[in-house]
Records
---
Amino acid sequence: MVLEPTEPQKAFLAEVTRFAQDVVAPRAASIDESGAYPIDVMRQAAARGLLGITIPQAWGGLGLDYVSYALAIEAISRASSTVGVSLVVHHSLVADILAHAGRTAQKDQWLRRLASGEAIGAFALSEPAAGTDAANQQTRAERTARGYRMTGRKVWVANADAASVAIVFACTRAGVRGQGVTAFLVPMDTPGISRTARADSLGVRGLGCMDLDFDVEVSDDQVLGSVDQGFRLAMWALQGGRVGVAAQALGIGEAAIAEAIAFAKVRETFGQPIARYEAIQWMLADVATELEAARMLTWKAADAKDRQERSRAESSMAKLAASEAAHRATDRAMQIMASEGYRRGSTIERLFRDVRATEIYQGTSEAQRLIIAQELLADA
Ligand SMILES: Cc1cc2nc3c(=O)[nH]c(=O)nc-3n(C[C@H](O)[C@H](O)[C@H](O)COP(=O)(O)OP(=O)(O)OC[C@H]3O[C@@H](n4cnc5c(N)ncnc54)[C@H](O)[C@@H]3O)c2cc1C
């Protein structure tokens, strides 16, 4: 058993870490402050191939494994978790689905552009009444002579502000929930898409989240995978996405611990640095241990995906453990930094806000526990 990345994975991580430190980190505070999608950073990521990390080389991507991807997302999220999760949506929820289920013409049209960064992808599953209950799709795609007419509303669509294409899920067979949902590849400039609102948020600001109203015509060529089988595709993609969100959470947690350590070494009370107090040391030891345990789960889930093993429980465990460990890490770091951390505009204040979303999107912590329990009880 080897519990560390291979030499090529380490070399890729070193390259991505340099990019994260030189390009992403200096923009993190301004992305948060403005709430504007960081298209400049994404273009620079694209120039380094980082919009095609997992996309096969045949379609212009780097063709790397999921462990490399998880390492990259952690390093980038340590600098800016907004950039990190934007890349997770683009890769796990859009490019991976296309590579897995797309027809050659669809890959030719979109996968190459996603790999080069010419196009950014979005994933539109959630609706006002379909969040955790994602099978309760109210968006309808009804048969017409030329294809389908799709009508409905999607909410919290990350990357929508900058995306050229979205994978949109719609009900094609009523009354059977997840058995009657189809995935469609929809260019964002299709007539009939209204970007109704830009969702403002507590954290991961700048993710380009929008609510979208659809009244569009789509052709049979835009069906991704098979008709009525789209919900399976969404659930498959979310398994990869959860590895990405776990990696994002690890990056946030690591950044919080680093902030707290740097502070604890220089802040003195009663004539000595607070790092000398056991109360502070124990907080650091606990969160570092939890984060490292979550990292092992994340690598395990990524490795299982690389081996094409069934990893439904593993990816949920990774996301659950990493998001909750990172939440505690930012909370303890805030405690260690006290008023300095609580100051609006401090790095820890941003991390504290950013981490919360990792327990909500791509399935809440309760949804992850339900999935893990379903897997545990499958044969009971
Ligand atoms: C920043 C951000 C970005 C997002 N990006 C995207 C995106 O790109 N694409 C997309 O499609 N969606 C996206 N979402 C939506 C996200 O996936 C949903 O918010 C999430 O799945 C939870 O759904 P909900 O908010 O409707 O909560 P609800 O489903 O209304 O849940 C409310 C509460 O009830 C709990 N709950 C619900 N059902 C159960 C149950 N059976 N057992 C126990 N507890 C339960 C939940 O855990 C939660 O605590 C994003 C959300 C955010 C905040």
---
Amino acid sequence: MITILLNSIIVLGGIGLFLGALLGWLNRKYVSQEYTIVDEIEALLPLTQCAQCGYAGCRPYAEAIASGGALNQCPPGGEQTIANLAKLLGRPTQELNKAYGSAKPTGVALIDEQQCIGCTLCIPVCPVDAIVGAHQLMHTVLEEHCTGCELCVEPCPVDCITLIQARAT
Ligand code: SF4
Ligand code: SF4
Ligand code: SF4
């Protein structure tokens, strides 16, 4: 009787181990792989988070591409990014869709601190928290964090933010 019980425990334990390994394999094959392709697509995007592609940032656009969305909506990436995405995904390359903007070199924002009135309107629009300052105090841009997305330019009421070429490090 004890022998039968022990055999049953061993068999059930073996089945449990097998099912655990099977679930792990299925998770790696079907769940992790989906994340991996989005990650790979995102890594090819410029990561400025500028939203010119019509999505809230590079990650949502990467997810859209992974679901079959167009490759040609990222102006900062230009033709090279489209070519890289096409190669990764085995899809035909396309011309940049100019409806989303034109390709141009990415710069960094510079605030004219003499003109800044400290209204703070630029702070919430920055997707990477690159602007520091407080109400009625001069603001400044942390150049090493700025992606050059230009989202802070339009909200500034005194037009004291411009995009300049990034300094070489
Ligand atoms: S357009 Fe801007 S937000 Fe969209 S993928 Fe390109 S860099 Fe990222
Ligand atoms: S400082 Fe301006 S240009 Fe730079 S990342 Fe922030 S919003 Fe974009
Ligand atoms: S929006 Fe312009 S004026 Fe207002 S805090 Fe930012 S840089 Fe200064």
